[in-house]
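[agent] plan:
  1. take the single chain provided in the ticket
  2. run structure prediction with default settings
  3. attach structure tokens to the ticket
  4. add a short note for the reviewer (M.T.)
[agent] executing step 1
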Amino acid sequence: MTAVPERDIAAMREALAEAVAALETDDVPVGAVVVDADGRVIGRGRNERERLADPTAHAEVVALRQAAAATGDWQLSGCSLVVTLEPCVMCAGAILSARIPRVVFGAWDDKAGAAGSVLDLLRERSLPIRVDEVVGGVLADESAELLSRFFRGRR
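[agent] step 2 finished; step 3 output follows
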């Protein structure tokens, strides 16, 4: 198994901070950051579906929108997306549309994941665009525990 680059761990910690902040609005604690080629965070997002009453306000989409606004370009081809939970189908589509070449995620989502668990849309060969590299399981225990605590409190 290859060692996870320190840059990915640092970015995941930033994403985890966003996930924790989602709890303030009673949203599912998922956080994401978009990192440019120099390692700078240029977009941050957390789930905001409850706060905004917007079904598309997933952490990844919020972070991608912020990164596109920061760069003035919808194509984020030199960036990486780092997210605490494996992206869903909608977010995978947004990632592909933004031309993100690298995705790093924390916890696997065995119910709705679209980056290798249930589906693998990010690397689907029949699509005209693919993500070059997908790295799963970075700080997975921390990400999964945050989600488990959230849902345990709802049962």
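[agent] step 4 note for reviewer: The two ends are 36 Å apart (CA to CA).
[agent] ticket updated
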